[in-house]
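Continuing the batch. This is chain 6 of the set; chains 1 through 5 are on the previous pages. Same settings as before, nothing changed between runs. Recording input and output for traceability.
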Amino acid sequence: MATASVSDSRERELWRRLGEVNDPELDEPITEMGFVERADIIGDGGVEIDFRLPTYWCSPNFAFLMLDGVRKALDQLSWSPAYRVRLHDHMFAEEVNRGIEEGKTFGDIFAGLAGDEDIGALRETFSMKAFKRRQEAVLLNLRRQGLTDREILGMDLAAYDVARLGPGDAARQKARYRAALVERFPARRQGDPLFVTWEGQAIPPMALDAYLADLRAVRINMEFNGALCRGLKQTRYKELEVIDGEPTLVDFIMDRVPERRAPAT
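Output for chain 6:
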């Protein structure tokens, strides 16, 4: 019974850590996006991960950022397991998997794949988008709670920590915005203003509507990309379905239509 309890505890911890890794472009957990196809704890406590992206041509930089996040998540597991991560059905899967087996870091593996793109700058761009999307969700929720713009923008971390934003996604975004704020401004103190721009500037109450319009544009772009990404993955790995007795167009494209056999005579 004790062994089963340890196994269950480790499995919960594994999926919780993986759930903290986000798709950098969408700011959604890779577990909710369905990118983690398998995460198993094997007999000796080791971990095996199968990772699959929506398309064969997904940017290697996006793959790098997510796989690096997976590596960091696995390094934080309490029992310090050996682990194996495999990327599937991607144009650079062979190079990535071979590099992992050879013990190379993800930075070394992707150095030759990323071209001239600055991974650090790309990471910061995505962090900025995540910061803005989470901030908008919290600002709008506080407005729905009936607070005035002046009250909202006058809130500090101490007041924010005791504020209630409601159940479900509102509570989730509250914690996520706090994490993004502290990551962006690690020296933030409890009495410092809670809502500032990405550059750290104060937001005047009379400018909040215009500021929210800018945040909304960021969110719409990310939500569109997210819907597209989910659709591509669902189409690519769709199980064979028959509609009115006939395979769908997707089934023909994916070459998953069973061979028709002549009726027995």
